[in-house]
Amino acid sequence: MILNKMVQKIGSVFRPQLFIYLIRALIPSWNFFDHVNYQFGLEFKVSGSEKWENVTFQRKNDLFGLLINPEINMDMAQVNIIEHFAYDIQDLIFKDPKIRFKDVQRLTSFKLLKSVLRIQLKNYQIAHSTIQFKIVATNLNEIKDIYISDWVDVGESL
Q: What's this model's pTM, rounded to 2 decimal places?
């Protein structure tokens, strides 16, 4: 009886669905067999600008990086979040070609992507928190816009 109450209490605090969504950022996407030749990228623009800025995740390796490389690991996790978001958008489009922004905002990958954008804006030393972003798929022959967002507030002013 006591054990049953403990299990009920833990069940009310621990939400497995939320745990699964959060752990997705650490698990690589295995959908690379679907489109071997496409690579996803992230671009953004700030209000008042018409120029899209490409977010790059290029870090230089050094000798110390052979043993410990937290910056490269962080970049890989951010690229993984972008890929998850791109696949989630493709799933939404498959279900209904006219996706609504409120449906996109409900995605866990969207919330994670906002965090990536917040970090990248800080890295680029951009003081705007309201931006527009797009996910692009590139290969050797073409560049496709997968998703172009509405204007999004990614957090506090940086």
A: 0.71
